[in-house]
Amino acid sequence: MPRIKQDLTDTHRTMQVVNHIRALIENGTLRPGDKIPPEREFARSLNISRASLRTGIGYLAAMGVMKVRHGVGTFVADGPAEFGKASFSLMGVLHGFQSWQMFEVRLILESNLAALAAERATEEHHTALAEEVAEIFASIDSPADFLIHDVLFHRILSQASGNPILGALMETITSALYDKRRKTVERSTDLRESAEMHRMIYRAIRARNPLEARKLMEQHLRMAQAAQGLERSAARKPAKTASRSTAPHAELDSARSDDQRPLARADQELPSCPPAQ
């Protein structure tokens, strides 16, 4: 029960930041491209900790409302903010969506999105992807920041596919995944390897090589699935050392059964993406 109470408190503080920034955007105080106040000042004005403010800002960045520039500051993203989407996370709780099912969806969608992006991306998309790759490498020592730029990279890639319907589907899934992943990302141990995969995907897209982009995205998602399974396994470890020592492999096997089920399916041939228009 205390853990549930803490989660509710964290969610309340996150939404406090979200609602405050939304109000500032709606009343015109903050406009696209504006830089938000310094972290210490902003946290004091909301009467919350800087850690809570960062969580709220991270949530907004993952939604595409804010843009975090490493070493520069946080800005309101260009373009309209979207706050009216149905909660995919809530649907997942109600219907029991499993992690392996989410990765199976990502494998089907994102591998083909990467191939489409290699065919259709503009120079503007290439520039935006390159910027996020740079931010990803700059954030290797800060898992929370790394996650934000990871999510933004995948968002830009879906936009570069040139298909707004596929982009909207990925947007829904990405928002739900971010909300879940941010709770375990501090336990990640493979960030440099993940950063390298993002750079390789970007290079394949820039080189307009759809087959290579698809292959690398599949590889990236399989690696991410395995790594995130270990993160969740670590989060589920019991507090008592004795309990940990009695069945050290049981938890890992449990994580694998949930998180790695689609890896066998992933080897099946994926449907080819439509030709560029």
Key terms:
277 residues, Arc Repressor Mutant, subunit A, 2 strands, globular, disordered C terminus
> For this structure, what is the CATH homologous superfamily of the largest domain?
GntR ligand-binding domain-like
Instruction: Give a count of the beta strands, DSSP E runs of length 2 or more.
Output: 2
The low-confidence runs, each spanning 5 or more residues with pLDDT under 50, are 79-86, 239-257, 262-277
Strand order of the largest sheet: 1-2
Describe the structure.
By secondary structure, the protein is an all-alpha fold. It folds into two domains: 75 residues, Orthogonal Bundle (Arc Repressor Mutant, subunit A); 179 residues, Up-down Bundle (Four Helix Bundle (Hemerythrin (Met), subunit A)), CATH 1.20.120.530. 70% of the residues lie in helices and 3% in strands. The protein has a two-stranded antiparallel sheet with strand order 1-2. Strand 1 and strand 2 form a beta hairpin. Helix 1 packs across helix 3, helix 3 packs parallel to helix 7 and helix 6 runs antiparallel to helix 9.
